[in-house]
Amino acid sequence: MANDTFLIALGANLPSAVGLPAQTLAAALEKMAEQGLALIAVSRFYRSPAFPAGSGPDYVNACAVLAAEATPGAVLARLHAIEEELGRIRTERWQARKIDLDLIAAGHMVLPDAEAQAAWRALPLERQMRETPAELILPHPRLQDRGFVLIPLAEIAPGWRHPATGRTVTEMAAALPEAEKAALVPLEPAGASD
Question: Which intervals hold domain 7,8-dihydro-6-hydroxymethylpterin-pyrophosphokinase (predicted)?
Answer without folding.
Answer: 8-158
